[in-house]
């Protein structure tokens, strides 16, 4: 990985030791040592204690304070900035007017955080209004960890060069969160679905998956999700391969359970790519981008049940129907003798009207339905919605490895079609 990135891996940080070192160095009440003796010596008043005490009392902050002093608060970007108040006060009689309500709504929308990152890159999730309870957090006892998840890379590249990572989602996690909590929040088109050719019955229900195997590879450890005992251990084959791989013979990879590991138990290298694999061969890269010790929970934190919290997401992953260009695609068509594009991305309406006559298949093609949605939800152009409502098609340009069921946990297409036909006939009866 170092050779590919062209940079060395930073020394790993044990998060538990990192928090302990912080607590040892900065203990409450976070004050500097008393320096009265040095101050008295610099004033040449070591022998005149009464005069030094009098000067100390005259310079006390309590004497210097007045009731008209400006309020001083700690400035934390994104939390403590206050919107400017309008100098002109609107009369109460004018509030019901439509022009006034429209103006107030526009002003509310323009009062944005000046430190917000550009929406041209990705959108930030608005902070909930809920406030953390005081007893939920103790200052200096919790870590906040920022994790950036990138979309799966293309299987092939036209210029045969490495593709630059493209951000999909960014999460805020607590040190007390389990790894499985983050995995359940990561959005991917492959989650909970099995893909096979449905061209013979385009509206057949997609069967749910009985298992959801996957792992996080962090530093030198595979964290496998074994909440379901039937989940396969994907790391077994990789560890077998590494025993004979060039340069890895002396590296001992460890394994652990994802559902029993908290983030505070990890040893990570900030900014260095880690690996998440699921659904057979769907691979994501993610990085630990930032660590924070929670020193002021009242201004930094939300209630615990919000974490892991989706902080930002990429919003340019949508792809519209190749035919109408108005709706989001629902079907992916491959090997069609009537389509210009291969693969072709089509909405439900265009797909059924172009490829079927009276419900019968026209021409030769393979079709895969990636999204279960009705016409109402299909017509929504959810550019402002989180990534869970969109599909990143660019990460699936090489659909053969994912859609053709070429990995162990998926059945072949013929067996899947036979099973679906049997289920549909049973429901019709």
UniProtKB/TrEMBL annotation:
GO terms under cellular component: nucleus; snRNA-activating protein complex
Key words, A-Z: DNA-binding, Nucleus, Transcription, Transcription regulation
Parts of the chain that traverse the membrane: none
Primary localisation category: nucleus
UniProt key word Transferase: no
Signal peptide (from-to): none
Entry keyword Repressor: no
Subcellular location: Nucleus
GO molecular function: bent DNA binding; core promoter sequence-specific DNA binding; RNA polymerase II cis-regulatory region sequence-specific DNA binding; RNA polymerase III type 3 promoter sequence-specific DNA binding
Pfam families listed in its UniProt record: SNAPC3
GO terms for biological process, alphabetical: snRNA transcription by RNA polymerase II; snRNA transcription by RNA polymerase III
Function per UniProt: Part of the SNAPc complex required for the transcription of both RNA polymerase II and III small-nuclear RNA genes. Binds to the proximal sequence element (PSE), a non-TATA-box basal promoter element common to these 2 types of genes. Recruits TBP and BRF2 to the U6 snRNA TATA box.
Record PANTHER family: SNRNA-ACTIVATING PROTEIN COMPLEX SUBUNIT 3
Quaternary structure, from the entry: Part of the SNAPc complex composed of 5 subunits: SNAPC1, SNAPC2, SNAPC3, SNAPC4 and SNAPC5. SNAPC3 interacts with SNAPC1.
Family as reported in the entry's similarity comment: Belongs to the SNAPC3/SRD2 family.
Protein name: snRNA-activating protein complex subunit 3
Species in which this protein is naturally found: Glossina fuscipes
